[in-house]
Design goal:
The protein has about 130 residues and is of the alpha/beta class. It contains 5 helices and 6 strands; from the N terminus they run ααβαβββαβαβ. It has a 6-stranded mixed beta sheet with strand order 1-6-5-2-3-4.
């Protein structure tokens, strides 16, 4: 709980104070970890989880896709995934963000912008316990 509070405060401040005019263009929600990874149901094969490790490494569904300072690989992979889904008639573009440590506001801005540019919608943060 102590680890997630600063992250949640940062996210909320970013949304409401840091970029008021842009906040509406970022459909961001916060979901509980137990809801995102429910053990009662089969895992969702369309689920996309971006993990930011403590050392700044970025992973997409546990596959390393660059660093928080270089999000080009992540953006490209997401764009390809979303285009492939569109070809098959799927419009699923939800992305969950799982922060494994602290993240600077500028890095959070960069990550959200990269997800938005890849057409991720909605973008949700996983709330840790």
């Amino acid at each position: 709980m102590k680890k997630i509070v600063p992250v949640l405060i940062l996210i909320l401040c970013h949304i409401f104070f840091g970029c008021k005019k842009d906040a509406k263009s970022y459909p961001i929600e916060i979901v509980d970890r137990n809801v995102a990874f429910s053990t009662d149901e089969k895992s969702d094969p369309l689920l996309l989880v971006v993990t930011i490790e403590k050392d700044g490494k970025v992973k997409l569904n546990n596959i390393e896709t660059g660093t928080i300072n270089n999000l080009e690989i992540l953006s490209t992979k997401l764009e390809i995934i979303f285009k492939d889904r569109e070809k098959t008639g799927l419009d699923e573009k939800e992305v969950l963000i799982d922060l494994q440590g602290k993240i600077k506001k500028k890095d959070l801005d960069r990550l959200i912008a990269a997800l938005k540019n890849a057409n991720a919608n909605p973008i949700r943060f996983i709330k840790n316990r």
